[in-house]
Each structure stands twice: as C-alpha cells, then as structure tokens.
Automatic annotation (TrEMBL):
Signal sequence segment: 1-22
Keyword Signal among record annotations: yes
Protein name (Swiss-Prot/TrEMBL): Aromatic hydrocarbon degradation protein
Keywords (A to Z) from UniProt: Signal
Species whose genome carries this gene: Pontibacter burrus
C-alpha cells in the first residue's frame, strides 16, 4: 500500500505540474525571437548549481537527464521536484526596470528496470519561455506620437522519456524521446497620440491590435553516450556527449485584427481573421562534457554546447536566429558525507562559471550571456538503507546583452529549490 501511494502521488504530480509552468510575470525582451528563451538546464538543480555542467558527470542520487546515458547510474528509484525563480533588471542607455518570474523547474521520476543494465526516466520541464512587453514611440510631428507595443506570452513544455543502458564496464549509452507542446501568443498594438486638439494629454481613444496564437506540438529525439574510467587509485575520468536530431514540429495558428480602446476594451473584433497550419524547424545540437572525480566527495566538470540555430525556421519559414555556443565549468565538494557531529560537513557545495552566445542577433550584434552559479544539497532527516531525502538549492547571477547599439541589457539573479527522494520501492520489508 505504501509503495502504491507513493506511485500515485508521483503520477499525479507529473500530470498536473504543467499548470504550474504558466506563472511567469517577467519581461524578457529577447524571448520575442524564435520560440522564446531556450532552457539550457536540461538536467536538474544539481546541474544548475554547477553552471549547467553534467553531460559527462554521473551522480548516483540525482537524476541527470542532461545525458540519457547517465540515467544508468540511478540504481534505485528517484523522484525530484524543483521550482525556479528569477529577479531581473532591464536597462538601456536611458532607463531601467525590474521584473520577476516564478516557474516549475522540473519534475522527474527515474526507475531502474534492471539494476545492472537499464534505467528509465520520465520528466516534465520548460523547453522555452516567452514573456515580453516592449513599447516603441516615434514622434511624427510636434503634437503627434506614433506608438507601437509588442507583447508576447506562453512557451513550449517538454515531456521527456529517456533510457540509459550499460554496455560494458564504464561505458553507457542512452536515448530519449520528448514530446514538445505549448502555446505562444503575440500581439502588436498600434495607437496614435494626438495633443493638437485640446491639451497636451489628449489622445485618440482607439487602437488597432494584431493578435496571433500559435499552438505547437511534436517529437524531439536525442542520443547520448558516456564513459567513466579509473586514472589512478583515487581519480576517475568521465567523458560524455549528447546529440539532438533536427525535428519539425507542427504549428497551428489563429490570427486576427481588432479595434480596441486605449483601456483594452474591444470595439470590434475579427476585422480580419485567419487560421493556418505549418511547421517550425528545430535544428540539431551537440553537447560534450568531461569530468574528474575521486569516486567519493569531489567532482569537477566542463561542458561545451553548440546548436545550429541558423537552420531554424519559424511558422512563416523565415530564418531569424544565428548559431550559438555555451561553455561552462563547475565543481562540487562534500567535506564528509558520513559525519555524525557536524551537519555542515554532510552538505554538498557547488559552484560554476559559464559564457556563451544566444541565438539572437539584433542591430548586427549577437547577444551574449555570462554568469556565475553556486548551490548546495542538504540532507533531510535520517537516511536509511531504504530512503534518502535531499534538499537542493542553486543560485546564479548573470548578464545577458548590452546597452550598446540601442540594445537592452539584462542583469538577472536566479534561485532554484527542490527535493530529491531516493527510495528502494521494490524491496519487500519485514517491518513497515
């Protein structure tokens, strides 16, 4: 009964967690392009604390979905739930503003099918996020100002199903299939402010808005491999790689023009309405990583990610992105996992650095992204041979973009928190 209850709880979380992903209240101007801001952390909070490294760094107690080949190392059933938040300051040469976000980071379940050969995992996480509100004002004459507002919200979610297999000692391979789904809504609102008829605050009371809602769904496939071998008696080397195949996802779009008041009330809807179907092409990507660890309490890892976003095509078959890369370096250390008298020695501490480019290029300049991360895993309660409970945290500070060439710079602070539960579900106990 106890095992059945836990299974039902995990299944319920996986089914209903998608509704928690739409809690975005932020402003991310560069998410206007492509399918939105791409989620680089395809692993977990452990990976986030190490600057999202981990393609070549296995872990027994954390579900590492960044490389399906590493799922093999989850020798007992593991469940993870994580939440993510971000505080962001946007600025250009003239002004600044602060916004925030709150999202589900991921929810994952890994189950060993064969304790010696095969582990499968199911995970739900954001693939991309769209959340922007940008206003452009141009003075037509002394009294007339033309205003254009661009708004977007929504994103793509990823339901991940991966498998990791042991081929021989030290060598594992893996594969995953992900179902991508979600809606992205974009609006372009045009209005004219005219102060020539009365006082300087007078304006026309109508706007023309173009709105489009696009629904996406499709499959994304990845393949991975990893090798971990001993260099010395106390040092191991790991190397891993993940390749994501090119895929076309289906897209259904409804679009319409509306007349609105300046307060947002609709005066006349469906001035022109249309529906169409199409596809969006997600290009191939490649990630490679290496690691060194002592098999006990210390790991250092480095990853390099590249994706050919110049091959991306949107719903209108237009190419609007450029190739990008991301390099990251991370490490973790546990002073003494078996310490009895000092709790802080049982905490795992992490840190990392990353630098790279985004797929977005504006005004001839490709947007760069760099930052620093740190984090910790705290044991919860008393561990037994059957159960291990962990509280995971990660923090990060980064800078995306620049204020040069009329662009926007984002200074952001990220915070992730979640739990990991490792449990031997399929062992018959003498005493419950």
């Amino acid at each position: 009964m106890y095992k059945t209850l836990r299974g039902l709880v995990c299944a319920a979380v996986l089914c209903f967690s998608y509704s928690a992903q739409a809690q975005n209240i932020g402003n991310a101007p560069y998410s206007r392009y492509g399918l939105g801001e791409y989620n680089y952390n395809t692993g977990n909070i452990r990976n986030a604390g190490m600057a999202n490294t981990g393609v070549g760094a296995a872990n027994v107690f954390q579900i590492n979905t960044a490389n399906p080949a590493l799922l093999y190392y989850n020798g007992i059933t593991a469940f993870e739930l994580g939440l993510s938040s971000q505080l962001k300051t946007l600025k250009n040469t003239n002004q600044s503003q602060t916004d925030g976000t709150a999202n589900l980071a991921s929810v994952s379940l890994a189950i060993p099918i064969s304790s010696q050969r095969w582990t499968a995992a199911l995970s739900l996480r954001p693939y991309s996020d769209v959340s922007y509100d940008v206003i452009s004002r141009n003075r037509v004459s002394e009294n007339v100002t033309f205003t254009q507002e661009y708004k977007g919200e929504g994103g793509i979610s990823e339901l991940y199903f991966g498998h990791g297999f042991r081929i021989t000692k030290g060598l594992t391979i893996g594969a995953s299939a992900s179902y991508l789904f979600g809606n992205i809504t974009k609006e372009s609102i045009t209005s004219v402010l005219d102060g020539s008829f009365s006082d300087s605050t007078a304006f026309t009371n109508e706007q023309v808005a173009y709105s489009e809602k696009t629904q996406y769904n499709g499959l994304l496939f990845k393949a991975g491999a990893n090798y971990r071998g001993k260099i010395t008696d106390k040092l191991y080397f790991g190397a891993g790689a993940v390749y994501s195949l090119k895929t076309d996802i289906d897209a259904d779009r409804d679009a319409a023009y509306e007349r609105r008041t300046t307060f947002g009330s609709v005066l006349q809807d469906s001035l022109y309405a249309s529906s169409a179907t199409g596809i969006a092409t997600i290009p191939t990507s490649f990630t490679a990583g290496i690691s060194l660890d002592n098999g006990s309490n210390f790991t250092v890892a480095a990853d390099y990610h590249a994706q050919q976003w110049s091959n991306f095509r949107n719903f209108d078959n237009k190419q609007e992105l450029v190739d990008n890369y991301r390099a990251s370096l991370g490490a973790e250390y546990t002073p003494n996992a078996n310490s009895v008298g000092n709790y802080f020695e049982r905490i795992t501490y992490r840190g990392g650095l990353y630098y790279g480019t985004t797929p977005v290029e504006v005004n001839g300049e490709q947007i760069k992204d760099r930052g620093v991360t740190f984090g910790a895993t705290l044991p919860i309660g008393r561990s037994t041979m059957y159960d291990l409970y962990l509280l995971n945290t990660s923090f990060g500070y980064g800078i995306r973009g620049t204020t040069d060439n009329g662009l926007v710079q984002e200074n952001y602070f990220q915070f992730n928190i979640g739990v990991s539960i490792n449990s031997r579900w399929f062992i018959k106990r003498r005493i419950e």
